[in-house]
Design brief:
3-stranded antiparallel sheet, about 40% helix
Amino acid sequence: MTNEHYNNLLKKFKNLKIENRKKKDLGLHDYSLINSLLKKNREVELHSNFIYSMINPNSKHYKGNIFLKYFIESMGITENEFDITNALVYKEKAKIDLMITNGKKVIIIENKLDAPDQKHQISRYIRYINDSKYIDNSDISNNLYVVYLSQTKKAPNKSQNSFYGFELVDNTLIWQNKVKKLSDDTTLDLETDLKINYRRIKHSDELYKWIAESRRWLINEQNSQSLVYAFDEYEEILNRLKSNRRKIMALDEYTLSLEDKEQKEMYEFMRESQSKLLNYTLEKLWIEFEKLFPENERENITINDQKFKKFSKSNLKNWLNKDGNSNSYRDIGFRYRLDNNNYIFALGVQHGAFGQEKTFVWKKNIIENIRNKNIFDLINEIKEEITKCQDLN
């Protein structure tokens, strides 16, 4: 890569930093209360819990079944097909993520993001519903909807045979007329030629419609601003699922927004930068340590019968790179005389130390996780520690 390429890419990086600064100054941010507590892809803890809290008519939002109405409509199921007047909503009933029933019909929702599909999973749910009191069993084919809520997958992984005993044709699960023993040792035995409605719903498509309709209704409701904020927060989570981009973009997100040719150049730049980072870190630290602690004034040390390795560039490199087992790269350091007092600078496995020899103790305060730390901050912390020691004397 030529110097011109380097300069152009560094200019792009500088412009990204400037643009991010402007956005921050305008008050833009990527903070989410929900996301600060839970990761965006937590299926049950985040998505199922939030949806359940809103579509449950008995929820403490005290808005009845209005959010359930919009939720069902977002799945393409009309009020004529599913009467919600007396509907109940369950979470984790028989391990079904979400279940909606009005006593005659049932909607079961399998919420999938990162968790793997389980063996015979949907068939086990259908068996449970078929044997339960939650549905009118006289004609299950017209009374049961299976909804697969997923961001990317159109159906469960075939290797787990989630639809065991069924064939998925378009939007219909068709029973293959054979008694099946399921993975939980139960038996699924259904009527000949039975068909069950199947829906695949995307987190970032149909759920947007649900949020929009719910929020539109809330605008005209008194004292409902907190519920609007709740839907806003959840929409932000869905935005992150969809694009995985933030308003304040990191370098990797910015690179993905470029044209392919520019992406390739930026990728090569980042890869080369990564390969050179250790060498740069080593050289920079060594230069700064030489300024702070000239090599000809450093002395070897032994503490508690433990002889510390010489503080050399090669040993520092081993320590930075965790080269070999911990005994190979730990406990390097030196004694240094400052204002008529002996001080110790040392690097262990996870901790470091700089302080008077007579009070030496491993501690985290100056070098906690140094390998992942901004070395400029690290150097400043060491300088501050030296200043503290000088002030004490």
